[in-house]
From TrEMBL:
The gene is metK. Binds 1 potassium ion per subunit. Binds 2 divalent ions per subunit. Its main location: cytoplasm. InterPro entries: ADOMET_SYNTHASE_CS (IPR022631), S-AdoMet_synt_C (IPR022630), S-AdoMet_synt_central (IPR022629), S-AdoMet_synt_N (IPR022628), S-AdoMet_synthetase (IPR002133), S-AdoMet_synthetase_sfam (IPR022636). Residues 4-102 form the S-adenosylmethionine synthetase N-terminal domain. This is S-adenosylmethionine synthase. Catalyzes the formation of S-adenosylmethionine (AdoMet) from methionine and ATP. The overall synthetic reaction is composed of two sequential steps, AdoMet formation and the subsequent tripolyphosphate hydrolysis which occurs prior to release of AdoMet from the enzyme. The lineage of its organism: Bacteria, Bacillati, Cyanobacteriota, Cyanophyceae, Synechococcales.
Length: 412
């Protein structure tokens, strides 16, 4: 298939599922800031006028979860007349958190396969498979469709919050279709933006006129600035630009749809361009390999591409609950590697420690919340966990490791 179109989507921070991800991660931030040894599995549900926080937590920290919930919802923009039936200050907040199962704790706190090495003492918090991916399509080494979809969603939120487009409301989605020729992006075929808005826009009341007005505004204030520094830009004459295809988008947020933590796992990762192990990230402390090992897998893949040892890499890791060392490590360059896949796997296992305790230590995942003023994971919960240029995430800092891998590879 020499020529094809690939599509990825993103959502704004006001999407119901993303509200939940941010609440769950804000709770995680607060608990880890006060007690870096906290064990957290926090799930959130939102619906009209209701936010439920549930799950399992073991911690010495004491935090006001209700206050955290209201702060997050208010920061997103669900307040007052613009709340759309879901107001941060008046919604019901229910908290139902239990303690972590001791059966799980015993395997995490002391791995069954430890041999005295301190980094062997922490076992994986669950079994599972995790994937990491990187490619040379963008400067951040991410696939172009998801990278552009995130850019559009983030810019959509910016122009809402700074008042440039004061009729926008918090809920929104973006979708980008990119044309590929022989595996390389050559054109942007379609951009779709669905954005919640007030019932009246610029004095207009007729749905068609409102949509045309929003469409022109979004091209000028969202699409153009979000793509200004890209070598491959959408062209107004050739790129299909769809806005609110149903006609209008007034009812949105939790009033329009219930939200749940962990339902946007493809948005959180690679936009469907790479495989996914199925585990969500938000609300989970770093002993949960669904999160920490996925970060490590991205670090491995990005290091290989940054070292120019391959143009495209997918990494799979697997773990067993209570065991420190990965059950398996797989590297696939899809035929783009400078070395055989087996050689790259040897390089990875030689230079990158993939035990949970090592991942946590090397990335500072238990202490990073306190070090950054009590907020870190919440910011990863919207607009993607990978390829972020607006956040300093440790798994994206591959300069040193890429150099190490390249030097070792050249000496082989």
């Amino acid at each position: 298939m020499a020529t094809y179109v690939f599509t990825s989507e993103s959502v704004t921070e006001g999407h119901p599922d993303k509200i939940c991800d941010q609440v769950s991660d804000a709770v995680l931030d607060a608990l880890l800031s006060a007690d870096p040894d906290s064990r957290v599995a926090c799930e959130t549900v939102v619906n009209t006028g209701l936010c439920l926080v549930t799950g399992e937590v073991t911690t010495k920290a004491r935090v006001d979860i209700t206050a955290i919930v209201r702060r997050v919802i208010a920061d997103i923009g669900y307040t007052g007349s613009r709340a759309g039936g879901f107001d941060a200050h008046s919604c019901a907040v229910l908290v139902a958190l239990d303690q972590q199962s001791p059966d799980i704790a015993q395997g995490v706190d002391e791995a069954v396969d430890h041999d005295g090495d301190p980094l062997d003492l922490v076992g994986a918090g669950d079994q599972g498979i995790m994937f990491g991916y990187a490619c040379n399509e963008t400067p951040e080494l991410m696939p172009l469709p998801i990278s552009l979809a995130h850019r559009l969603a983030l810019q959509l939120a910016r122009v809402r919050k700074n008042g440039t487009l004061d009729y926008l409301l918090p809920d929104g989605k973006t979708q980008v279709s990119v044309v590929y020729d022989n595996g390389q992006p050559v054109a942007i075929d379609t951009i779709l933006i669905s954005t919640q808005h007030t019932a009246q826009v610029a004095g207009l009341r007729q749905a068609g006129a409102i949509r045309d007005h929003i469409r022109n505004d979004l091209w000028t204030h969202v699409v153009a600035p979000a793509t200004a520094d890209l070598p491959l830009k959408p062209e107004r004459s050739t790129t299909q630009f769809l806005v609110n295809p149903t006609g209008q988008f007034v009812v949105g947020g939790p009033q329009g749809d219930a939200g749940l933590t962990g339902r946007k796992i493809i948005v959180d990762t690679y936009g469907g361009y790479a495989r996914h192990g199925g585990g969500a990230f938000s609300g989970k402390d770093p002993t949960k390999v669904d999160r920490s090992a996925a970060y490590a897998a991205r670090f491995v893949a990005k290091s290989i591409v940054a070292a120019e040892l391959a143009r495209r890499v997918e990494v799979q890791l697997s773990y067993a609950i209570g065991r420190a060392r990965p059950v398996s490590v797989l590297v696939d360059t899809f035929g783009t590697g400078q070395l055989r896949n087996e050689q790259l796997m040897e390089l990875v296992q030689q230079h990158i420690d993939l035990r949970p305790a090592a991942i946590i230590q090397n990335f500072g995942l238990s202490t990073i919340c306190a070090e950054r003023g009590g907020r870190f994971y919440q910011d990863t919960a919207a607009y993607g966990h990978f390829g972020r240029t607006d956040l300093q995430t440790p798994w994206e800092d591959v300069t040193t490791m890429a150099s190490t891998l390249r030097q070792t590879a050249l000496s082989c």
